[in-house]
Amino acid sequence: MRSTGATSPAAALLRLELSLVQPVLRSAAARMWRSGPGLPARYRHYLHTMHQVIRASVPLMERAAGHCEALPHDPVAPPLARYLRAHAEEERGHDDWLLTDAAVCGAPPGELTAAVPPARVAALVGAQYYWIEHSHPVALLGYIAVLEGNAPAPGLAARLARETGLPPAAFETVRLHADLDDGHSADLDRLIGRLPLSPQQRSLIAVSALHTVTALAELFDRIATGPHTSGSTHD
């Protein structure tokens, strides 16, 4: 996980907890991006899978913000709602980047949007809907912390283009997220430091984050091992 500079005790504790499981996610990512003849197919599978994940980002944040706005007497809710509304605007359209990359890779129009989301994607994303509806919207901060704290490494887009033979334009999402997500992680750390979180809310953020690590690692492992076919409902 990349350093975001000075952090609050609450944010530092979350980062420490995540650092204990970080090797699991890093190992899965390394297997997914390993060099070899299967890399182009794995990259196409990655685009399909991450489109199914990222297209849920803005709806998740909007739903969580709406729940916060219905809790005017909760001291965490108003600043959390403001953050989520602003961050949703920053993330809006990122799923379209993946569609563009897939099109450059030769995906037929509508292939990604028509695919049935597999159970592992539902397990990753769907847990957040449950916690937003039945616990507290602050859970979403754990999810965001993992996704944005594990941005693609600088230089990954260039290496993938070189090793797959696909056009450099097919890797814009990887390149852009490598540039953007470090700043987003720092913003999140500052927010966590400002929020008057209860012990239960801190625990919920940690549970959400650890679930996200596990579910995302499983997705990456599925991509690493195949089968690399679009629209699969089994992975």
Structure commentary:
The protein is 71% helix and 0% strand. The protein has eleven helices and no strands. The radius of gyration is 18 Å and the shape is globular. Mean pLDDT is 90; it is low at 1-5 and 229-234.
Beta-strand percent range: under 5%
Number of strands: 0
Give helix and strand order, one letter per element, not per position.
HHHHHHHHHHH
The poorly predicted ranges are: 1-5, 229-234
Rg: 18 Å
| Biggest sheet statistics | none
Task: Provide keyphrases for this structure.
235 residues; 11 helices; globular; disordered N terminus
Reconstruct the topology from this structure.
Layout: H1 9-32, H2 39-54, H3 57-69, H4 77-91, H5 94-104, H6 111-114, H7 119-134, H8 140-149, H9 156-164, H10 172-194, H11 199-225
